[in-house]
Every structure is written in C-alpha cells, then in structure tokens.
## 1
Amino acid sequence: MGTPHNAAKLGDIAKTVLMPGDPLRAQFIAENYLEDAVCFNTVRNMFGYTGTYKGKRISVMGSGMGMPSMGLYSYELFHEYDVDNIMRIGTAGSISEEANVRDIIMGIGACTDSNYAKQFHLPGTYAPTADYTLLKTAVEEAEKLGIKPVVGNIVSTDSFYHAQEDVNLRWASMGILAIEMESAALYMNAAKAGKRALSIMTISDHILKEIILPPEERQTGFRQMMEVALNTAVAITE
Ligand code: HPA
C-alpha cells in the first residue's frame, strides 16, 4: 500500500531499522555493510533499504533532520510496517566534559524544548527514555569492539540556531551530555506504540570547547557507531 512518505509495502521492512539523519548515509550502509540490499523507498529521497547483516534481516532508512521528520517516519515504521525496534545513528554536539569529540554516546533519556509530548495530553511532564534492552545490548556490543560509550541524558532541540546565548549552559547545568534534534520524538513514538528505540550518536562537535571534527574524522566515528548498531540489531534478532 505505502504511505504518503514511504513507498514500501508491508513486509518490505525488517523488524529492526537503523535510522541515520542523512538518507545518503542509509545508502552508504546498504552498499557497504548489507548483503542483498533492496531499496524500498525513494519518496523525497528518504532512501530506505532492507538487506542482511551476519545473516539477519535488517533495514536502514534516513530520518531527516528534526523531530517532525523523525516523528513521521518512525510513526509509520512502527504503525504501518510492524517495525519493533528503531535505532537512531546520528551525530550530536557535546556540552559536557564527559563527552569529547569522536566519543560514542547513547541517550538514556532525551529532554526536549519541543511541544511533541503535548499531543498525548498527559497531566505532567513526560520523560522520554531509551529501551533498556536495546541500551544494555548496545553497550555490550560496543565493549566487545573495544569502545567505551558514554551513556547519559541528552536534549533534542527544535532550534539548531537558538536565540538565547546561555541555552547550552542551562542544559549542561542539569547534566545533559549533548544536543541533537530527533531522539525525543523517536522515544515518545516508541513508547506510545509499545515498541523499542535507542539513539546512538557520535560527538561531531564540542559546543562549549568550540571544537568541530573534520569531515574525514566524522566518517571514522560513524563507521564505529554503525558497527555497534548493526551488531546490536543482530544480537536482538532471533
Ligand atoms: N545542535 C543540534 N544538533 C546537532 C549539533 C548541535 O550542535 N551537532 C550535531 N547535531
């Protein structure tokens, strides 16, 4: 059938989907890591592929940038395509001494300045969190590769260019590791759907120390993160 944003038919997408922000990264993963990858979506160039990795069926699809984009694609994957697990694999800007450029971080929780939670009409403030099984498995898989991930709270912002100069310091004062733009929507969609989500990110820049990784180094960090995510997908697949 498909949706307004996804041409895939039910059954075309695996139970576990890795979602980089950039659809060209989805294509890169399909071409370099998956066997027998088949493209299931090209609508708006938000490429999606299904193939196998270490014998397990896995999909990869771009999420786009920001919570509205991650929100709609992950909603459709959970509700229209019977997807059970989504792992975001992206980049984040550190605002913490604990997370340095090149580090791999995992978001236990995702604070947000967005109104995404309003739709659920809750009588308080919702705390979007990662799925514990995915998180635990991802930490174990990272350690098997000799990587020590930094695990903690992150913030998903609607404003890459924020009007308030001290905004990052305020989040940092609450122990937030890093800033990105998608995880809170993903975690809320997973919770509402009764499914599982996790965000794994490489630190591409340190906002407070004003360090930005050169593009080729971003690529190396990205490869490590992809392997952690792919091995986690394998570990949780029957
Ligand atoms: N802000 C928001 N999202 C990001 C950043 C940032 O500084 N770096 C990578 N993703």
## 2
Amino acid sequence: MHQPSMQQFMSDPAAINRLRAQFLAELAATSGEPALRGLRDRYLGRKSGAITALLKSVAAAPPDVRPTLGRLANELKGQIETALAERLATVEAPRHPADAVDVTLPGRDFPLGHRHPLTLLRERIEEIFTRMGYQGLEGPECEDDYHNYEALNMPPHHPARDMQDTLYLASPFNERYAVPGTGRRDAYAANLLRTHTSGMQIRYMETHAPPVRIIVPGRVYRRDNLDLTHTPMFTQIEGLVVDEGVTLADLKGTMAAFLGELFETDAKVRFRPSFFPYTEPSAEVLLGCIFCKGSGCGICKKTGWLEVAGSGMVHPALFERVGYDPERYTGFAFGMGVERIAIVKYGVDDIRMFYENDLRFLEQFGQ
Ligand code: DAH
C-alpha cells in the first residue's frame, strides 16, 4: 500500500475527494486488527498521518479558500475516524469481560439461603404465643439434676427417670447462668444435658413472682439412637402459665387456639389422660389427623389422631418448692417437640431429614 502524498491535496477540493476515495479503497482492502491500526496510523497519525498533513496544508492555504478547504478537510477527518472506529470495533477483542456480557440474557439467579425449617417453625410457634401475651426465653442446655428432675417430683431413683435416658456430663462442674430479664445470676452445678425444657418452669418461678406466662424453646438431649422418629438431640418448646384461677379449661382453650392457628384449620383437639410427675392431672394433646381427617392413615398410624404435646395442671409441690402459695395460685404447663410438629405439619416421614442438611430437602422450606 502506498503512502498518500502530500502534494495531492495541496491544491483543491478535488484532491480532498481523491484522498477520501483512496482511503475508502484501502479500508475495503484491509482486514484484521493490526492492519486496521496501521491504516489508522497512516491517515490519522500525529506525525506523518495524511490527514494531519492535510490539515497543516490547509492552515497554510490562501485565506480566500482556507474556510472551504478547512471544512472539507475536517469532514474527511471525521469520516475516516468514524469508519475506522466502526471497523475496529468489529474486530477488536473485548478488553474487559464486561464487554462480553450479552445484555439480552435473563439475569443470573444468585440463590439466597434461608433459615432452617425447624428454625422457621420454632419462630412461627413463638410468634403465635407471643401474640397471646407469652414472654419467650431460653434456658441452659447443661442442667443440674435438681432442675431437670428433682424439683419436678422426680427424686433420685424415681421410676419416672427411666422414661428419659439421660446424658450425664463426665464430671460435675459449676456453671453460672443468668436468668433472662432479671439480671440475676444463679450458681448451679451442671451435671447433665437437659432431657427436656421443663426444668425452666422451676428456674423461672424461682426468680419471678406470679403471674407467669412464658414459652421456652430450646435443644434437649437423650440417649437415643438415630432412627425414623428419634435423634439424640431435638428441640422442645415448654409453656407455663400461673395465675389465680387458671383452670384446665384454659389449657384446653389455649391448645385449641394455638393448634388452629399453626395448622390453619379448624383443628380438632382432644385430650387423653396421661401421667407426668410434675402435672396433676396430666394429658396428652391430640390433633385430629390433618392428612386423613380422621379416617386413619400412615402418618397417624391408623388412629386418626396425632400426638403433639404433653401437658397438665402444675403440681402444687412445684409451687411449694419455689415459694408460690399453692392455695392461691394454679397453673398449666405444656411441652412439645418441634421436630414432631414439623413432621406432622409437613408430612415428613423421617426425622433425620432435618439434620442431614440435604439441600434438596431444605430448599422446599424456603420463603
Ligand atoms: N417434659 C415432657 C417431655 O419431655 C413434656 C411435657 C409434658 C412438658 C407435660 C410439660 C408438661 O410441661 O406439663 O416429654
């Protein structure tokens, strides 16, 4: 390719047109990024570019033709710049990955995590009770024998202790535990992992005068092997209400209102007599099976009923132990397993699913 010569366009507009024609012909014959850059240098280069030379010669032209030549020369310069930029844009490799983004593609989904189904359910249960005026609080997972058993009418060697296989801590040690909301700290000897949250009934009453209206969610531990319905650690929610004139009817009404709200149905609720050492009378709370509506299915083991909580009227001996007047106060208590309720609510048939962290399972509970 030959260098455009300076003399050509010294003279007149026709020379400028020839330079244009020459450029267009060369552009048409050029391909590839390096060659296009070379072409750009030959025409637009600061030192020896043809257009640079043209503009210099225009500056030196006689004043009468200078404006016309100047306009034509600048037009040509703009035309060459645009044409080169367009061609280069088609061959240049993207300088930055952002240039390669196809803006017509749908946006990329960044999956956000969500809370664990058991946490969501626990929070939902807490929310229902909070709206009924309950205060939520937590207690220690390392518990002492007194609060887990003895103060709940299960002295050493009481047969009821056999109902729960306890994980005892290797060596008794002293812990300090602050009772929420009181700023008070109680020293106690922790020597087991609590087998239920019921010990918090005692802990709370020891430090608070009636009336009482609390729920206590938390982890509990038992010496169970993993199977469809057992895990050595699970979650309970304890409830306790104490005041003057609290009756069994209040307990039934509370359970019916709670279950109706949680399962969003006109829940059928039934009480079955039971035994817990810390309540008298005691009852299991049964919910009409939400899957078969009572006709009997695999989830309710053909009974038409699902067991969802233990409950009863607080045993007067507990009140005596914490310094409440049993003649003046009555109360009810209940305890439920969050996993058990989750199994019932979601129709999950294996409790282990909640602890295996399989995303295919967990993602079904996202919000
Ligand atoms: N603590 C019992 C359990 O672990 C559940 C329970 C039953 C709690 C009756 C209560 C109650 O407060 O009154 O199975």
